[in-house]
Write a structure and sequence with these properties.
CATH topology of the largest domain: Alpha-D-Glucose-1,6-Bisphosphate, Chain A, domain 3
Strand content: 15-25%
Largest sheet: 7 strands, mixed
Radius of gyration: 22 Å
CATH superfamily of the largest domain: Alpha-D-Glucose-1,6-Bisphosphate, subunit A, domain 3
Distance between the termini: 27 Å
CATH class of the largest domain: Alpha Beta
Strand order of the largest sheet: 1-2-6-5-3-4-7
C-alpha cells in the first residue's frame, strides 16, 4: 500500500521499497528546481543554492535502509545532498531555510507504526510541497529499476550539529524566555517514542537548564502505538506516577517530532488540542497580533482565545502546508493544528515540537503557575475524534454522501453554517459546537470530529453525520 498526498508518501515497508523510493525521489529531483523558480520568484531567489538538498530520517528501524537509495538518486541527478542522519522533520525544515537549500527530503512515516516508512518533500521555502506541487512530482513517476547496492558520496554532518543549529535558532525568538526558564530549573518528563525526538532533548535540556526524566529514550523499534494521543499515553502516565520525585510538566512527541502532547505535573495527559491553544494564549499575551491560523479540525478554544485578545482566527484545510501558506500570506506569527502541531514563524513555517516545548515552558516561567492551572484556564470544550476504515473503491460514493451534507444546512438555515475547505464542516456558532467529516491525508480512513460543550452533544453530532454518510 502506498499513500501519496501533500503530507508526503507513506508505504508499508516491503521488499519493493527500493523501487518506490527511487521513483518518487527521482520525480522530486527532476522537478524541484522548476518548483523553486516558481516558489521563490522575487523572494531572494538568488540566495537559493539549487544544488543542495537536506536529507534526514526519523530513526525508525527501517528508515536506515532508505537512506542510501535517496542519496544516490539525488547524486545521480546532479545534487549535492547534505545528510544529517536522525533528526526531527522540523530540523530538516530549519536547515533548508538557514542553508538556503533548494529542498529537503525526510525519511519518515510520521505517527504511523514501525512497519511503515515514507518520504516527506520540502521546497526551498522549507514548507512541504503544496497540493499543486505534489501533483507535478507525483505525476512524473517513471519506470525505474532499484539500485543493487548504492554507495553515494555526499556531505554529512552529525545529528548533534544539525540539532544545535535548529535549537539555537528557535531560542533567538523573543517569545522564548531562555533565562527565565533556566532560573526555574524545571523537571520535565519526555517521551521520545524511540525516535528522533530523543536526538534533540539532551541539548535542549542543557541550554534550558532542565532536569530530565526520559521514557522511550532509545532510538530504534517504535512503540506499538507511536502517535502521542492521550489514549496512547497511559504507559507514560504510569511511568511518571511511579517515580519518587514529581515533575513540573511532561511532553510526548511523535516519531518525527513535529507534534507535541503535554502531560501535567501529575502525569495526566492533556488533550492534544490544548497544545496549540496554550501556545496561542501565551503568544497573544506577549505580542499584539492581528491573526492566528488553525486548520478547520482544530478546537474552537483557539477562536475564543483570539477574540479575548482582539485577534482573528483564520481556518484552513487540514494539513501543515495549508496552515503554513496562510500564515505566510497573512504574516501571522502563530498557528498550527489541533494534533499537537505548533508553528511559530519566528523559527520556520512548520510544525515543531521544539517550538511547542519552548513556548509552554516560557508560559510557565512567565506566569509562575503550574501547567495544570494554565490548562484549567483554557476554554472548556469536549472534543471527540472518530475514524472509519473504508474500501478505497467506495471513496467516490462516500464523497457524494459528504456533498449531500450541504443540503442538511439548507434544510436547517438557522442552525448551521457550512465550511467546505476540506470535506464538510457544519458549525453552530450560537451553541458553540461543530462537526467535521473528511478523508484522511495519510491513511485510508474517514475522520469525523465533533466539538461541543458536552460529550452528549458531540455524540449526537457524530451520530447525525454517521447516519448521513455511512447508511
Amino acid at each position: 500500500m502506498i499513500i501519496a498526498t501533500f503530507s508526503g508518501v507513506r508505504m508499508i515497508h516491503n521488499d519493493q521499497y527500493q523501487i518506490h523510493v527511487r521513483r518518487y525521489t527521482s520525480a522530486f529531483s527532476r522537478n524541484i528546481k522548476q518548483i523553486a523558480d516558481v516558489q521563490e520568484r522575487g523572494q531572494l531567489a538568488s540566495q537559493i543554492n539549487k544544488n543542495i538538498v537536506i536529507v534526514g530520517r526519523d530513526g525508525r528501524e527501517v528508515s536506515q535502509q532508505y537512506v542510501d537509495h535517496v542519496l544516490q538518486v539525488l547524486v545521480d541527478h546532479g545534487f549535492k545532498p547534505l545528510y544529517v542522519d536522525t533528526v526531527p522533520t522540523p530540523t530538516v525544515q530549519q536547515l533548508v531555510q538557514l542553508k538556503h537549500a533548494v529542498g529537503g527530503i525526510v525519511i519518515t512515516a510520521s505517527h504511523n507504526p514501525g512497519n511503515w516508512c515514507g518520504l516527506k518533500f520540502l521546497g526551498p521555502s522549507s514548507l512541504f510541497l503544496s497540493p499543486d506541487e505534489c501533483q507535478i512530482v507525483y505525476g512524473d513517476l517513471q519506470n525505474e529499476e532499484a539500485y543493487d547496492n548504492p554507495k553515494p558520496e555526499c556531505d554529512r554532518i552529525s545529528s548533534e550539529e544539525a540539532i544545535k543549529i535548529h535549537v539555537d535558532h528557535v531560542l533567538k525568538s523573543n517569545l522564548v524566555k531562555v533565562q527565565q526558564i533556566r532560573d526555574c530549573n524545571f523537571k520535565i518528563a519526555f517521551n521520545g517514542m524511540c525516535a528522533s525526538g530523543n536526538a534533540y532533548i539532551p541539548y535542549l535540556a542543557e541550554v534550558l537548564n532542565l532536569q530530565l526524566l526520559r521514557y522511550n529514550s532509545n532510538i530504534g523499534p517504535l512503540p506499538q502505538k507511536p502517535e502521542p494521543t492521550p489514549q496512547n499515553l497511559q504507559d507514560f502516565k504510569d511511568f511518571i506516577q511511579s517515580q519518587k520525585s514529581s515533575i513540573d510538566v511532561g511532553f510526548a512527541v511523535d516519531p518525527d517530532a513535529d507534534r507535541c502532547v503535554i502531560v501535567d505535573q501529575f502525569g495526566e495527559p492533556v488533550l492534544e488540542e490544548l497544545t496549540l491553544s496554550l501556545c496561542v494564549e501565551y503568544v497573544l499575551s506577549q505580542s499584539a497580533e492581528q491573526f492566528a491560523v488553525k486548520n478547520c479540525s482544530s478546537s474552537m478554544s483557539n477562536d475564543v482565545i483570539c477574540r479575548s485578545h482582539g485577534a482573528k482566527i483564520i481556518e484552513t484545510a487540514v494539513g501543515e502546508v495549508n496552515v503554513a501558506l496562510r500564515m505566510r500570506e497573512l504574516n501571522a506569527r502563530i498557528g498550527g493544528e489541533g494534533n499537537g502541531g505548533v508553528i511559530l514563524s519566528d523559527a520556520h513555517l512548520g510544525r515543531d515540537s521544539i517550538v511547542a516545548i519552548c513556548l509552554i515552558l516560557s508560559y510557565m516561567a512567565v506566569s509562575h503557575q503550574p501547567i495544570s492551572t494554565l490548562v484549567n484556564k483554557m476554554p472548556k470544550f469536549t472534543v471527540i475524534k472518530e475514524k472509519y476504515e473504508f474500501d478505497p473503491q467506495n471513496r467516490s460514493n462516500l464523497l457524494l454522501k459528504m456533498e449531500q451534507l450541504k443540503s442538511f444546512t439548507e434544510n436547517h438555515p438557522n442552525q448551521f453554517r457550512i465550511l467546505t475547505v476540506d470535506g464538510v464542516k457544519l458549525i453552530y456558532d450560537e451553541k458553540l459546537k461543530w462537526v467535521h467529516v473528511r478523508f484522511s491525508n495519510t491513511e485510508p480512513i474517514v475522520r469525523i470530529i465533533a466539538e461541543a460543550q458536552t460529550e452528549n452533544e458531540c455524540r449526537e453530532l457524530i451520530k447525525k453525520v454517521e447516519d448521513l454518510v455511512f447508511k
